[in-house]
Specification:
- 2 copies of one chain form a homodimer.
- Chain A is α/β, with parallel strands linked by helices and about 425 residues long.
- The first copy, chain A, has 2 domains: about 10-345, TIM Barrel (Alpha-Beta Barrel), CATH 3.20.20; about 350-425, no CATH class.
- Chain A is built from 16 helices and 12 strands.
- In chain A, the strands form 3 sheets. Chain A has a 7-stranded parallel sheet with strand order 6-3-2-1-9-8-7. The first copy, chain A, has a 3-stranded parallel sheet with strand order 11-10-12. A two-stranded antiparallel sheet of chain A has the order 4-5.
- In chain A, helix 13 (about 380-390) links the parallel strand 10 and strand 11.
- In chain A, helix 3 packs across helix 4, helix 10 packs parallel to helix 11 and helix 11 runs parallel beside helix 12.
- The interface of A and B includes residues 27 and 67 of A.
Chain lengths: ~425, ~425
């Protein structure tokens, strides 16, 4: 079995500017960014994820602002001066409950954000422009298409764009190609929120997540129902990230494909401020026991300032660093893991594969109509958790791959279990 | 009869920045603004209307950006250096087909833009902040609440906010009070698009337009159906502005209230580039024959650059000044009128009042359920135009005021005509 390429795993943070949050682009202050990056670098992490704001970078479809690109470049350079690599998300899109869609794609100009030719051409030009700006910088890791951009295709969205799985895949290919056009040698990703893993109607299926881009990305948030159902410090909550990593991996065709835990945070009130360090420690211990983990990027660097209104309450306290640039207790936990990462041994492959019948009829089928079983409280979710809590270190094997010995061998899986067997007392 | 206060009438332009259109706020360049204002001042006009962009000035409900206020102040000062007074619109809101609504009031945070407490409080704080910033500047005329903000309450809007007439009035009072709180001695307005005069369902009724703010404002656009029905250089089209001024005036309770023709433009292809100067000349001649006209503010100063995409085609050629800072033929017409304005005599009062039965049951009634008759092609529209074309200089008298001798006397109206009489051959 091929050794995973990313041992030790990377540790990083999602960079949320201390002053002005992502509105900082409107009052860009490189010295303020440098101060934030100083505090982040002091945690001992190796990378940050940075976020453009789409309507500010591309206020008109024909105008990707050169000044915005220069500012982003300066931010990446400031990170480099502090030994930090940078991955950049383009299409924001969505950040912490707020949507940012340019005026040329909303209300009177509203078009499908994934299928309208003009919109897609504009998005592609935008991603290429950012990637091109950053391509020559040695600490630039690559782009993510956009932070959970597929939220705009979810039925829960107030103004959803409707599309088919084939259209979703076409859009993904187009966006990733646009990133590659600008930065051919960088690693480009896309990110999905967990509804894509759970909602049987979501056009961004887990197969798309696991088969496009340089790696599979996972965003783990216990406010997805896990904390409410099981408790914020329950085994289920502190294993959610590990579960999502294994679950997302199951949909891949490449048995060696890495998974990037791109977002994980300790949201209040699901975990209190006092509980957050323990939540972080246990979550990280569990997820570091996942084979082929590329890295962990904590959400987020800095608390949101109270002078900014209308955020979901939890956003004001998600930072590892507070509004006075002081490292919080959870920040110390993440820093300790980051500092110890070079000593981490690669976890053994997971020998036990829990078989997931998500409704895919073959390894090539991009649909997963039965994926609701994977949501918190679902039969598959509970079976995996029960196995894990019992110490079995379960992987997940998509049903079409369960009969593929090469796939199983490549992943080191020697034993298959059906969910029904777990609840029968396996 | 009281002499109108604004003779000679003011001439001005709506300032559309040559580089970057209103996205210029993102790349604010005072020297570029100065160059634009030089070209505008050279037309001989006395004022400009300037536009903030709401989500850029107030990206979070709790943050009205000081830098944006400073930039706006610098723009007003640059105008002063060129002898130009400035009226500033706050809530954009809507500009040339594009809507700008901050992320804290849309999609996941979507609330009624006129009635939700948090949104209204945010809007009020924003308007007060702008007004306060500008209050001490001697060339600051005052605020307009926002450019045609009531579009967001129109049924034609893709995502309309629904509200009652009473709610619309309450919002207007709140917004105007917010302007006054910041600049107590300035003159504050609000602006309506012509659907408010024509659409019987629109909660912003003509009575609200004519009874709140320092003056009644009118936006005259022949693409409202007039050009299509009658032709771009038809008598109806070149008299549309005068008609709207007289129509809007009819809904006022103050017989001496002035009307400001805040927007008038020559839109292609309804009038060609070759026809635009004639359209401007005839339109201005007709509207200057309206008694109590405060001023005329042409839309707009500068053509939109072709590098900016997705504008309605007509927006690329509405400027009086082109992308090379050259005055266009229509600009020369407006400049000639502006230069001659001091010699203009106040037009005589209009002695003939065409009675409008808009469905208001009394002078205090704020509803106008029959106002569709005023739209292009409507019986009232046609009666007024026929009278005007026949040389009768018609004013408009709202039916409840037709039996009020004091009202008629104050306006100098000595003769009332019913629309049916016009078509009977009066």
């Amino acid at each position: 079995m091929r050794q995973p390429t990313s041992m030790p795993p990377r540790f990083g943070v999602n960079y949320t500017p201390r002053t002005g949050w992502f509105h900082h682009w409107l009052d860009f202050d490189l010295d303020a960014v440098r101060a934030d990056l100083d505090a982040i670098a002091a945690l001992g992490v190796d990378h940050v994820r940075m976020f453009a704001v789409w309507p500010l970078f591309q206020p008109n479809r024909g105008l990707v602002r050169p000044a915005a690109l220069r500012q982003l470049g300066a931010m990446v350079d400031a990170a480099a001066e502090r030994g930090l690599d940078v991955s950049v998300d383009g299409l924001q899109g969505h950040l912490s409950s707020f949507d940012f869609v340019p005026s040329w794609a909303t209300t009177w100009h509203r078009q499908n954000l994934f299928t309208a030719d003009g919109v897609v051409a504009g998005q592609a030009a935008y991603l290429t422009a950012i990637a091109r700006e950053l391509a020559g910088r040695p600490n630039f890791l690559g782009m993510s298409v956009g932070n959970e951009f597929s939220q705009f295709a979810g039925a829960q969205h107030p103004e959803p764009s409707t599309l088919t799985v084939a259209e979703a895949e076409h859009w993904l290919r187009t966006m990733l190609a646009a990133c590659t056009a600008g930065a051919p040698h960088a690693e480009h990703h896309h990110s999905e929120y967990d509804a894509a893993l759970f909602d049987p109607q979501h056009p961004f299926t887990p197969q798309l997540g696991a088969r496009h881009g340089a790696r599979t990305t996972v965003h783990s948030w216990i406010f997805n129902g896990t904390a409410r159902r099981y408790g914020g410090l329950s085994e289920q909550s502190v294993r959610l990230a590990a579960y999502l990593v294994e679950l997302a991996r199951a949909y891949g065709t490449d048995p060696h494909r890495e998974v990037w835990l791109q977002e994980i945070g300790a949201p209040a009130p699901h975990v209190s401020a006092a509980e957050a360090p323990e939540f972080a420690r246990r979550t990280l211990e569990h997820v570091l026991d996942c084979h082929g983990l590329y890295g962990v990027t904590w959400w987020c660097s800095h608390d949101v300032g109270r002078e900014l209104l209308d955020f979901p309450e939890l956003e004001y306290s998600l930072g590892l660093i507070d509004q006075q640039q002081r490292v919080k207790a959870t920040g110390s936990v993440v820093a300790a893991f980051a500092g110890a990462r070079s000593a981490l041994a690669a976890p053994a492959a997971r020998a036990v594969g829990l078989v997931l019948e998500a409704g895919a009829t073959s390894g090539d089928d991009l649909h997963a109509p039965l994926r609701a079983t994977c949501a918190p409280g679902g039969a598959f979710f509970e079976a995996w958790m029960d196995l894990a809590i019992a110490g079995h270190r379960p992987a997940v094997v998509l049903a079409p791959f369960a009969a593929d010995p090469a796939h199983l061998t490549a992943r080191g899986i020697t034993h298959l279990i059906q969910p029904a067997e777990v609840h029968a007392g396996t």
